[in-house]
Amino acid sequence: MNNILQVKHLIETYKDKNQKFQALDDVSFTIDQGEILALLGPNGAGKTTTVSIIGGYLLPTSGQVILNGQDITTARKRPNIGVSFGGDLGFYRNATAKQNLQFFADLAKVPFRKQKTEIQRVLSIVELDNVANKKVGKFSKGMTQRLHIARSLLNNPSLLLLDEPTSGLDVEIAQSVQKTIKKLADSGISILLTSHTMSEVEKLAKNVVILGAGKVFFTGTVSAVLSLAEKEINQKPKNLEEAYLAIAPKLRRN
Questions:
Q1: Residue 217: its pLDDT value, please?
Q2: Of 57, 107, 138, 184, which sees the most CB atoms within 10 A?
Q3: Distance CA 207, CA 222 (A)
Q4: How confident is the model at residue 102 (pLDDT cuts 50, 70, 90)?
């Protein structure tokens, strides 16, 4: 399979007076076309910084982010990358789903003559086309989460960045969102997923990158994480959550 995304030797150093904080220290990984890669790690490990650099919200101190062969950290015109941070914020609650997406279609530089078709397309993908004219303030949490994903799909990005896409949702609604994510990957879209729900990671991702203290602690398959944890606890973990908890102490900053 082809590497859609190559993250190469990312370093991000924050300076505050006479102190330096190493948020990222030589972070590298790849994502193939149609792959869901999970980015894991405790709070403060560097996940948000990594996603922010890939999404274009932050420039790295050094390193490269190569998308479809182009280094997007130095490109004048950044390629379209879909980003969904989720949550209750981000939309005009007194506007309809369609009206909200019209606003974001302008930001995504979707040509005006194509906006109607594009908005219908993304609403259909997340199964919200039947509530296109409903005010977002009356949406359930699950509907709002799916609208976030619809927004990230405007203008056909080849890469989606999904941050905690089912956070705060009940089990049934979370499964519906997960089904949508899987369908997107099956259509050929590459997805970088951050999640603290290990059962979700097991359902969606084949490969994971685990960050600890700004460094890549592990890259490989979910089953390989279980084997790694087995060496720590001298017994085979029942699932990814148990495996992650076994190695978690090694991921903390000193």
A1: 96
A2: 184
A3: 6
A4: very high
Residue of 45, 29, 66, 10 whose CA lies nearest to 250: 45
CATH code for residues 84-226: 3.40.50.300
Q: How far apart, in whole angstroms, are the C-alpha atoms of residue 224 and residue 3? A: 21
Q: Check: CB of residue 214 under 8 Å from CB of residue 25.
A: yes
Decide: 139 and 87 in contact? Cβ < 8 Å.
no
SS3 content of the chain, % helix, strand, coil (to 5): 40, 25, 35
Which residue type is seen at 164?
E
With cut-offs at 50, 70 and 90, classify the pLDDT of residue 219. very high
Backbone angles phi, psi at 4, to 5 degrees: -80, -40
What are φ and ψ of residue 170, in 5° steps? -75, 170
**pLDDT-based confidence at 252, cuts 50/70/90?**
confident
Residue-wise pLDDT for 181-193, tens only, equals: 999 999 999 999 9
**37 strand-pairing partners:** 192, 207
Q: Identify any residues that bridge with 160 across adjacent strands, giving them in sequence order.
A: 82, 191
**For residue 32, which of 5, 61, 70 has the smallest C-alpha distance?**
5
Beta strand 36-40 with 190-194 is parallel
Beta-carbon contacts of 25 under 8 Å, excluding residues fewer than 6 positions away, are 11, 213, 214, 215
Tokens of 100: 């909200």
Place of tokens 């997805």: 191
